[in-house]
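User: Hey, quick favor. My workstation is busy. Could you predict this chain's structure for me?
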Amino acid sequence: MSIVFRNANGWLLDACSLVDKGVQLCNVTSERKAASGKSYFKCCFKHECFQILKSHVSVKSSCTVTTNDCAVSDAALQRSENKTTVDCKPSKKRKRKHNDLNQGEIDSLAFHHKIRSAILEGTKSLVDAGLSCEYLSEVKDAREDPLPSQECNLAALCDMAKELPLVSEHGEDPVQFIESEDGCSTTHLDLFTRITENCMDCAMEVTLMGEKYIIPPRCAFLLSDFSRMQPLVGYGKFFDLIVLDPPWENKSVKRSGRYSFLPSSQLKRLPVPLLASTGCVVVTWVTNRPSHLRFVRDELYPHWGVEVLAEWFWVKVTRSGEYVFPLDSPHKKPYEVLVLGRYRGCGHHSHSSLRKTELPMEEQRVIVSVPSALHSHKPSLSEVLRPYVGADARCLELFARSLQPGWTSWGNEVIKFQHVSYYTMEPTDEPTDEPTDTDTGSLHGESSPHFSPPPPTPD
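Assistant: No problem, here it is.
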């Protein structure tokens, strides 16, 4: 179980274990079979990607963060459980006065002040539980191994593939399968205009465009850009959970050119109403810019017919339980926001595996985990959200950069983190007829195999 601990404040997650669970048994390529004499391998995501050992910011002194209607004092800062405060050492640049703050910065401070206590209290309770069961602990003499580095040109390939005709225009089947009829892995796949499925109960190592990727069991994906989503709509499935991680527009993204961004107004064109079943849970990752949060709550969700129900917070901590950035840093925050709602649009999408009685969704919850050091590699929300959508829910991720077992995923880098360079692989015995632990498990009564946590605190 990848939920380390749960209480009334939220969840402590083992994000790496969530990835490993989907690829623990992998049917490998013929080349690897010939070299090892084994047809199956055990895969693990490289754990050095989750070895965040210390905070990214050196903290030396405290200050007061003030807005027109709120203030965070020195004493409040020092109550943080990791005793970190904001480094306010004078810089060489002229320090702006309060009245130099623009409206966006003032709004950000006000929002932070509003949610600060919930994040502080929730994180402390979950980190304390993680320390108690020794899932979190001070790492001594640990080395930080180099991260896997794989040049990803998938987005550029998607841009080039815009010129290709869609298979639907020729009356062809919009779905293709990784395994062929003779049981062999298929290498010649049309990844850009058709849905690709792995219907096997184990992961598959496949060669795609000359590179090897690990594809989790029972998953489907479409590799395309924003303008080529028709195959997903034509897939004929309605989903009970849709998670979005949009490439939000901001100054740092524009400066770095690290990835392409999408203007907020363009998000309204996403065909969410055509993909959502009645009562579908919709979850959107939002940056800490209040303008983005307001857009999702006040424009995007109403445009889709989604009722806003909650705001949750993903809090990023180190292996020892400290915030990756000081909680009150005026720059980068150690948390990101999730906006949750349910699709209340027209009911012609009657097929749904959701429970007849919807589980009420708490307005504020905290999800604490050690983040991946890889850029924009978010933790899976599958186990956290299962009680709200049902065990047999159909799940979809939009703007995905990795795949999840049992999910459908779309994005212009959708298999980025499935590249074999991100995994360690060891030969293992042939699978038996006995059931394997490919399911994500029940929310209650299970724990990660790495430790034995105390029983969860009842809500």
